[in-house]
């Protein structure tokens, strides 16, 4: 009995490790999973990674003509192309990272059932893949902004870094939460798809924040709109890439932008801890449910 106990003590029960810290320590495994995800995604594809340029470009032109030209938003918002694309890449990063992380455990069911490794690795790898796709879009935005005369200051660059950090933290937290729930209830994927659709319209991507305040006033509706973590994130991207371009004579940032950015930071960190908590509570049941 003592010998059996000694052997059993040499194992770590699922969900009893250090969670994300174990995943970060296994950086080599994380890199392997990222490479696997990229190879599987573009297997048999002619364009391969070029889809990282094609999809957001098509999305940009559709929105630009639908909102900018047909609804004449480009007449009221100077350099509307930069304004629009800076919001698009922020929302695309969130939607892809959140969606991929939600499907990460179910999508890697074969590995989850065969071997044990920190399952958070799958979610982190999915978010990393989204960041890999985000980089080409960011390069296109930088080239366009530079062409328009982009001259950022330290505050503008800090706003972009903060917005990116909030996005990644929020995506990882929500991805862990819904990734664990998706193993138990496959309806979670549909919820995530709805969130992605709403995110594009519930944030100032296709319109200016002043349009929202003019419609809902300065009461609880306006406050609720700003409490959406993605709202200050998109405005931080605007402050970084759009505001420093010539033609934007006077950039008026939303009232309380930095306060709501702080709230968004706290919210994203809270989701990270809560998502990790739920993930670790359900971790031991993944293999059985899959």
TrEMBL record:
Compartments, record wording: Cell inner membrane; Cell membrane
Pfam families to which the protein is assigned, alphabetical: ABC2_membrane
GO biological process, one term: lipopolysaccharide transport
Record's keyword annotation contains Cell membrane: yes
InterPro entries, per database record: ABC2_TM, ABC2_TM_bact-type
Gene Ontology molecular function: ABC-type transporter activity
Recorded GO CC terms: plasma membrane
Protein's recorded name: Transport permease protein
Species of provenance: Propioniciclava flava
Lineage: Bacteria, Bacillati, Actinomycetota, Actinomycetes, Propionibacteriales
């Amino acid at each position: 009995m003592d010998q059996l106990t000694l052997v059993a003590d040499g194992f770590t029960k699922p969900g009893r490790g250090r969670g994300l810290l174990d995943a970060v320590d296994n950086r080599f495994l994380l890199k392997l999973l990222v490479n696997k995800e990229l190879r599987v995604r573009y297997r048999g594809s002619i364009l391969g990674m070029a889809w990282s340029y094609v999809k957001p470009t098509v999305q940009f032109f559709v929105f630009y003509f639908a909102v900018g030209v047909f609804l004449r938003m480009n007449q009221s918002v100077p350099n509307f192309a930069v304004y629009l694309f800076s919001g698009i890449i922020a929302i695309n990063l969130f939607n892809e990272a959140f969606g991929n992380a939600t499907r990460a455990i179910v999508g890697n069911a074969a590995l989850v059932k065969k071997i044990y490794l920190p399952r958070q690795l799958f979610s982190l790898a999915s978010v990393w893949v989204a960041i890999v796709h985000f980089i080409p879009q960011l390069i296109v935005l930088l080239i366009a902004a530079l062409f328009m005369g982009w001259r950022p200051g330290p505050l503008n660059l800090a706003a972009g870094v903060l917005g990116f950090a909030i996005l990644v933290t929020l995506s990882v937290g929500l991805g862990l939460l819904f990734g664990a729930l998706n193993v138990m209830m496959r309806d979670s994927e549909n919820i995530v798809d709805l969130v992605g659709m709403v995110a594009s319209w519930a944030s100032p991507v296709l319109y200016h924040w002043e349009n929202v305040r003019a419609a809902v006033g300065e009461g609880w509706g306006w406050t609720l709109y700003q409490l959406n973590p993605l709202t200050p994130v998109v405005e931080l991207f605007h402050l970084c890439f759009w505001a420093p371009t010539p033609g934007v004579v006077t950039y008026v940032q939303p009232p309380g932008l930095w306060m709501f950015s702080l709230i968004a930071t706290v919210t994203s960190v809270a989701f990270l801890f809560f998502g990790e908590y739920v993930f670790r509570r359900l971790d031991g049941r993944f293999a059985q449910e899959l």
